[in-house]
Amino acid sequence: MIFYNFIHNEAGGDELHIDGEITSEDGGWWGASGQIVARRFRQQLARCGDVTVFINSPGGDVFAGAEIYTALREHKGKVTVKISGIAASAASVIAMAGDEVLMSPVAYMMIHDPWTYAMGNAREMEHQAQVLREIGEGLIAAYTTKTGKSRDEIADMLAAETYMNAEQAVREGFADGILYEEAQEPAQQPQQAMMMQARRYGPAAICAMVRAADAAHAKPAAQNPDAKRRAEIAQRAQIIADYYIDIKGREDILKIHARGKPLGDDVDLKSIARGTAGFAGADLENLLNEAAIMATRSKRRFIMQADIDEAILKVVMGPEKKSRVVSERARRLTAYHESGHAIASFFLKNSDPVHYITIIPRGAAGGFTWYRKAEDAENFTSRGEMFDSIVSALGGRIAEQLFLDDISTDRKSTRLNSSHEWISRMPSSA
C-alpha cells in the first residue's frame, strides 16, 4: 500500500498527503521495489509547483523518510508542511524539510533514536550498533538544521524519546506556528494579542520565534513570504520576554493542565507553583506532561510528587545521563563541589533553601545543587542578598581547595558566572 498521495488542485496549488506507516513497499528501500518508490515519488514531486505536505504518520522506514526529506529539500517550489495528527519518528524528519512547518493545535511530534531488530554474533551486533549511530547522526543533522539547536541538545532529546505538542514544538524550534491561531488573535487590539501570545507560549517560545525570524531574514525575499510578520515578532520580543507569571498565575495554569491527570495525595499544586518561579505557561504544561509519562513508565496509576520533582529537573536541566562515563576523581570532585554550595547556603540567612543535590550528570552539568525559592523574586535585590549569593556560588570552589587542595575550572559553571554578575552589580560601600 502506498503511504502517500499527490493531489493537484488548480485553485490552490499542489498537495502531498502522507498518511500511515512510511514504507518502501515490499522490497526494502534499497531493494528494487524501494528504488521504484523513490523514483516514482521524485517524478510526481517534479510536476508540482508550490506544495503543501499534510502529515499524519507514526513513522516507519528511516531510509524512505530520508529520501522524501531530501526530495522535498531539493524541490524548487515552496514546501509548506502541515501536521494534522502526529509526525513521529521518520515522519518528523520529513517535516523538517518544510520551508514553513505548521501544526494543528491538537497535533503531536515525536523524535527518538533509531532502532531496529537484530540477530547474530557479537561482531554483527556491534556492526549494527555502529550503523544505528551513523543513522542517528543523520537525524541529528536534519533537526539541528531546522531548530538551530546544538548537536548535544538534539541528541539528548532523541535519547529521551521526546513527545511535543504544538506549543512545545514551536517553543523548541521544530515548528514555525500553529494552525488557526491568527483567527484567535484580535487584530484590532495588538497589545492584547501580544500578551495573549506571551501567556500562551512564554518567553522561551518567543526567543525561538526570534531565532526563526533571524534565519528567515537570511533567505532571499522570494523564499521568505513571512518576513514582515517575523519582523514584527522580533520587534515585540523584548516586551513579551519581560512578561512574568506570578505564583497565583502559575497555580491557575497548573490547575488547567492537571485536568484529566490523576494526581497522588502528596501532590500540592500551590507548592509546585511556589517552586517554579520563572516558568512560563508552556513550561508548566510540559512539566505535568513529563510527570505523567514518568508515572506511566513506572506503571503507577497516579502522578506522585517524586514524578513532579524529576520532571522539574528535566525541564530545567535536561534528562539524567546515567550512561555517561565519569571517572572516580571527577565524581569525588563533583561531590565536594556541590556539597560546598549546599553547606555554605545552609549558614546564610539570605540564601534560598537547598531542595535537591546530585552528582549524576544532567544536561551540560556534571552535578548540581537545586535551590527552591520560597517566593517570587522581587524587583530589587539587597546588598546582603547579593553578598550571600556570591558566598553560595563560591562555596563549591572553596570546598575543593579545603578538601582536595586544588580547584577546578568550568567555563559553563552557572554558579561561578552568577557570582561574577553579583559582584558587578553590588553597590560600593559608603
Shape: globular
Q: First CA to last CA: what distance?
A: 81 Å
Number of strands: 10
Percentage of β-strand residues: 5-15%
Structural class: alpha/beta
Q: Strand count, sense and closure of the main sheet?
A: 8 strands, mixed
Radius of gyration: 25 Å
Q: In sequence order, what are the helices and strands, one letter per element?
A: EEHEHEHEEHHEHEHHHHHHHHHEEHH
Helix content: 40-55%
Number of helices: 17
What do you see in this structure?
This protein is an alpha/beta fold. Residues 26-32, 183-206 and 237-243 have low confidence and may be disordered. It is built from 17 helices and ten strands. It folds into four domains: 4-178, 2-enoyl-CoA Hydratase, Chain A, domain 1 (Alpha-Beta Complex); 182-241; 257-317, Helicase, Ruva Protein, domain 3; 328-425, Methane Monooxygenase Hydroxylase, Chain G, domain 1, CATH 1.20.58.760.
Topology:
Layout: E1 4-9, E2 13-19, H1 32-46, E3 51-57, H2 62-74, E4 79-88, H3 90-95, E5 100-103, E6 108-111, H4 122-147, H5 151-159, E7 162-165, H6 166-172, E8 177-178, H7 190-201, H8 203-217, H9 227-235, H10 237-241, H11 247-257, H12 269-274, H13 281-297, H14 305-317, H15 328-346, E9 354-358, E10 368-371, H16 383-404, H17 414-425
Parallel strand pairs: 2-3, 3-4, 4-5, 4-6, 5-8
Antiparallel strand pairs: 1-2, 6-7, 9-10
Short structural summary:
With 430 residues, the protein is of the alpha/beta class. It is built from 17 helices and 10 strands. The strands form 2 sheets. Strands 1, 2, 3, 4, 5, 6, 7 and 8 form an 8-stranded mixed sheet that branches. A two-stranded antiparallel ribbon has the order 9-10.
